[in-house]
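Exercise (ungraded).
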Amino acid sequence: MAASPRIIVVGGGLAGLSAVIKIAEAGGTTDLFSIVPVKRSHSVCAQGGINAAKNLKGEGDTTWQHFDDSIYGGDFLANQTPVKAMCEAAPGIIDLLDRMGVPFNRTPEGLLDFRRFGGTLYNRTAFAGATTGQQLLYALDEQVRRSEAEGKVKKYEGWEFLSAIIDGKGVCRGIVAMDLRTMEVRAFAADAVILATGGIGAIFGKSTNSVVCTGSAQSAVFQQGAYYANGEFIQVHPTCIPGEDKLRLMSESARGEGGRVWVPKKAGDKRPGREIPEGERWYFLEEWYPKYGNLVPRDVATRAIYKVIYELGLGIDGQPMVYLDLTHIDRATLDRKLGGILEIYEKFVGVDPHVEPMKIFPGMHYTMGGLWVDNDQMTNVPGLLASGECEYQYHGANRLGANSLVSCIHGGFVSGIVAMKYAGSAGAQEGDGGAAQEVARQVELNKKLINNQGGENPFKLWRELGEVMTQHASVIRYNKGLKLADEKVVELLERYKKVNLSDKSQWANTSFAFARQLYNMMELSRTITLGAILRDESRGAHYKPDFPERNDEKFLKTTKASFTGAPDGPKFEYEVVDTQYIKPRPRKY
Amino acid sequence: MANKTIQLEIKRQANPDAPAVWERFELEWRPGMNVTSAMMDIAANPVTADGKPTTPITYDSSCLEEICGSCAMRINGKARMACSALIDNLEQPIKLEPLSKFPLVRDLQVDRSVLFENLKVVKAWVPIDGTYDLGSGPRQYPQEQEIRYPLSNCISCTCCMEVCPQFNEGTGFVGAATIAQVKLFNMHPTGKVLMEERLRALAGDGGIQECGYAQNCVEACPKSIPLTDAISDVGRDVMMQQVKDLLRS
């Protein structure tokens, strides 16, 4: 009997763990790699909920309506076949999570409760307080722990993915990873590799992402020949708490439960929010978007907040902030449905959001772009799959709130099943499949970095990268600014050659690992800046005042970037979008 | 006038066998600073207060919003999360030390994998039949959800274990976090099929009997999990199980 397939999964968030579960169920064995213990993955930060058209509120919701909302919300850029499949799978995923023990909020009758989220008129979002991502991650983590106890999974926690092993025929045969304690670099063979390495927030310096979300792994395989698609589409979440070290998310569920966004009508009003009478408050989202109100999609809400602050000069007390107000909702409801996030606000700001309106500002939150994959989650490198935020498939030009968790789990499931079917189909590898050569290349990179001489500090370079990306490549984009940003990245890549690590030790050297990630962040950031320059239109989260309209004729296309290594950056090509089910129509909320 | 500064003293140890040394840092103050942002500042400019070049601090961190459970350490002697430790609320010099009950890796980083091993021992999961579509889950009322949800908020930070006088090599005590998870899974309509196995795993040496009711755990828990309630509930169930097993034998 042939040995059971051995699959490598990189990343232990929702997508990675979902893949592991399907592999174990199909009789495969998984080597699971993660920088952090998987229970600490960034999925833990997701707050508001997970979408599925269960139609438990008598509204006549359907999976088709969920599909239509998602495609429309994404401004028609997503390929429709996989999105349709995801929306159809979603109700079954909720049931499964419920069976796994996720403590979803319940109705008095003991059924799942649902709330409304942005970009829809239906109560479609299942939730566990305001820590849904944490609860989902734990449920999957528990199932994987069970498989681990049964010997079907081996965890490599505290290992960092460095690169894929790609043989002479272009087939992925495994990975090279580094032990973050001993700094040992090793090759691991596999019948297929699934990357589920999450977001890229660190490219923007401060974001809502965890510090581990650097995009380093997807950048590494991009540099090895994998396509990176729609990189220019970056979601800036309208409601975050600005902070010294990060931007903390204030979930969309706050508005889903009735939270209202407003500013004082009078510019520079010095009174505390709660003392400003109703008649002197301007609920601009409700006024501008009477149908969806505070629950317009994130790109729309973010641009509205920018307009109020920067064009109309109405930020709170002249500062770049607006109010997100929950004070009209009773305490018990708030605690039951939003407890976790109100606690975050109170802990980090020191103000009680039950009695004071929260002060918020938009922050980088999510990348719709990611590794290019086909409808089976396979990249253009055979044997290398991707699922979760690190791939581009499900959200088009703008992701709807509470669609990320479902896309992670659905994509993870698909990738696990496909990897098992794929295993063995590429035929036996020749020799070691290129493993020794790839290890040697990585060891050489490490040696060079650790012995490098010069005056540059990687953390300072990172701050500069984040500042320039946030300034020019987030909410409002001009070709001139994007060009400046790209030139800055090229300059930083040059200065990176003079990075001098103050820590040259070979034990738990975190700045060394960070410096390696930083290089990959910089290479990947060029898919964002240059991709954005080329797309002369406005679509979803990509907004150019000089080209304010969507241009389907020229740009209803997927951007595909491939790495060249040349100084002028990646090569870009465009692919037709699958729009076979829903004909593109103007997006007007 | 010079800019306002903050003072930190950080216990450093290059590796488990190296001697521990204290390093002093003086950083520029900014509003809203927390312990993690202070350590990011050190990484960007690794120089001690005496002007001596040093290395960035090794510590665990990820989400920075007290939900991933990574950045637990001892701050002014108290086990807590570094991200939610706001500088303006701390007495200076701020003393940072690694958790003391876990094997040290480097500086403020320790190995807390014992908790994840404990969760395996008590089978902290719901044994589902499979991931294929089997229809909706068991009905559960909001009153049950409101008990389970807080227990499910455990971020595995291990603060409760660090502060527990009974959590040490001598007793091999599993600690409060694991016991609370036993309650969580025993309450679930499907999860409870493994109840007897979980209770037996908590009987005997290192089990729930080691708890000395010092109640430090519930005070240290950053998520305000009702740990002592969980310990008394599970303790009663373990005892009942032991009696049942005795009568059956």
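Further reading is listed at the end of the chapter. For now, observe: Chain A has 15 helices and 21 strands. Chain A has a mean pLDDT of 97.
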